[in-house]
Write the structure tokens for this entry.
Amino acid sequence: MKKESIFLSSLVLITAMINLLNFNNNYHFGGDFAQYIIQSKLSISELEYEQNYNVYFNSFISETIGPNLYHSGYPILLKIVSSFDVHQIKYYKLVNITLSLIFIVICFLIFKNFDKKLMYFGTLLIAFSDEFIIISSSLEADVSFAIFGILIIYTLTNKTLNYKYELSMTYAFISCFFKMQGVLFVGFILFFYLLNSSKNKTFLIVFSTLCIISVALYFSEYKVLFGDYSNLQNAFSLKLINLKFNLQVIASFFLPKFLDLELYRNIFIFLFVIVYIFNVIKFKIFDFYNLFFTLFLVFFSSFIFRGGIRFTLFVIPVFIIIVYRALLEIKNVNFQHIVISLIFLINLTNLHNFDNFKMYNALYTKESEALFQWIETNTNDSDLISFYKPRTLRLITERNFIHTTFYEDKIFPDFVILLNNQLTVDGENSFNINTQRYKYSQNIADFYTVFYN
């Protein structure tokens, strides 16, 4: 027990240090984090206005840039930071850094329940993955949702825990305030319960109570807590168009940068397919790990949007267990040790170059800073501005923004901002916006061009 505590404490400390050293990196120009931060600054009564604001401006664009309103779970966590009235976005990353450390601890406990060797090996694989470090020090909401996923895994696979179905169902319902995929957790737990447990009154009472509370909230003024995804209704395809992509994403999670190539990812996928088939034959499809992995892989493969590892992060511990127990079927202990050591050493090579954990800081380049300053100096609060990342600039400058794919016959922005690489040689642009409608244009930092009257 003492060795386990020392190992886990050391690993958490090392991971925290890596994240803090990476504190000023991983700022991209994505809009998701901007919308989450905007919502974190609002009260529940103000969320309805925010929803109507986004519904209105999203009705004028041809490209879906995100839901009209995100679930309120993650913005509520961000209120810890926004309540201090901070102006630097990087401090919001402290929430994800903390959550990533909790993620490591829960994964450690999941692996401990399965096998003592995996307790060390599996946790190290996750902690030293460059993909995990990057998402840990980012501003994405998916780490918070993944916490509930692995809590459910830990609870349902813990043989000594009482009220496991009641606890896991509670986690599932809470996760619905973080992402709509939480409904899948509810369905999975209910299905697994019916497969493996005799009916008991406690679970039925808990499940019924949670259903009643959720329905009551949904049909009340607090419905906004569940977000508004009405503009994303056609986001699924039964063709599983992203199956290979998601398997490649999982492969990239474990492969170091110098091996993260198409050839090696395909070899990884081929070997895993063999392992997966073996698991289904040996342990059957309704085994917890096989069922959990299959359900969520199918779901995210039918989702037409590609989110990378942040969508499937909570599946990683199950993936590791599926591979590990197939390896245990090989009775040669020396071979097992060689394979485990080889996998870990390959993964460990990520640490030799700290740049593996960094992402391009598009949000705070000199070009972006120049754009922010120009907008604040040359526009008014009532102006409408078009940009390809509208939510980000709305957060930074507090102006009204609309996406660049706006319908020109329905709305006329006061300013149109385009990247210079979105302009063609003949004066046209990749969005086919009629810039001739504007009298003036101005180049900003040789990177952006603004059109206005």
In short: The beta strands are 384-387, 400-403, 415-419, 440-444, 448-452. The radius of gyration is 24 Å. The longest helix spans residues 93-114. The chain has a mean pLDDT of 88.
